[in-house]
Design a protein that fits this description.
By secondary structure, this protein is an all-alpha fold. Helices cover 72% and strands 0% of the residues. The longest helix is centred in the middle third of the chain and has 27 residues. It is elongated.
Length: 203
């Protein structure tokens, strides 16, 4: 097998360093110069791959999507069972696994930029649309298998993520672990209702 190109290895390295810097100092304080210093390279090398900071932010948003899409990776045992795979993903969405995929402060900083930057807005919408599309496909598969009855999979997927987004935005303010878990379970029940499923069926 041939070696990976320098571009294939350098770009992800730079984006991950930018992400770590944003976690540490805030996205607004993360710069190309600081990112270069973090991984001991010349800033000109970053500019070679990402001509502007805006391009680096765009790559960071794509990195967010890649991390979030991990939630749809399910054990092989559930691959042939559409309902089980759907429920596995719902379980993950309403668990620490989902919330720990990407740092909230960075994600919300990226999101705040959609109000000022049309390109970021478009890129971020791609992220959210992709997540909804993936969940919609799982719902359709379970529908076709006769495991569930959801009249509008696209709408149901959208509503589940409306619950997810609202839940974690609010829960980011909750410091009581017991209350956090209690509310997360409640929000999961609301999501299951969008699929005409009960908590008992999901257990």
């Amino acid at each position: 097998m041939g070696r990976k190109s320098l571009k294939e290895s350098r770009q992800p390295e730079i984006v991950k360093a930018f992400y770590k810097l944003a976690k540490k100092e805030g996205l607004e304080n993360a710069s190309i110069a600081k990112t270069a210093a973090m991984i001991n390279i010349n800033p000109s090398l970053i500019i070679h791959y990402f001509q502007t900071r805006e391009q680096l932010v765009s790559a960071l948003i794509e990195f967010i999507l890649e991390r979030y899409l991990q939630i749809f990776k399910t054990p092989s045992v559930s691959e042939e069972d559409p309902k089980k795979r759907l429920l596995t993903v719902i379980d993950k969405l309403f668990s620490q696994k989902w919330n720990m995929l990407f740092d909230d402060s960075v994600a919300y900083s990226c999101y705040s930029m959609v109000f000022r930057d049309k390109k970021v807005k478009s890129k971020f919408k791609e992220v959210l649309d992709q997540l909804r599309h993936n969940l919609e496909e799982l719902i359709r598969n379970a529908n076709e298998a006769g495991d569930i009855e959801v009249a509008d999979p696209a709408r149901a997927a959208d509503m589940v993520f409306v619950i997810v987004d609202g839940a974690y935005y609010y829960l980011s303010l909750e410091t009581n672990k017991a209350e956090y878990g209690k509310r997360l379970d409640y929000y999961k029940i609301q999501a299951l209702q969008q699929l005409n499923l009960s908590a008992f069926e999901a257990a």
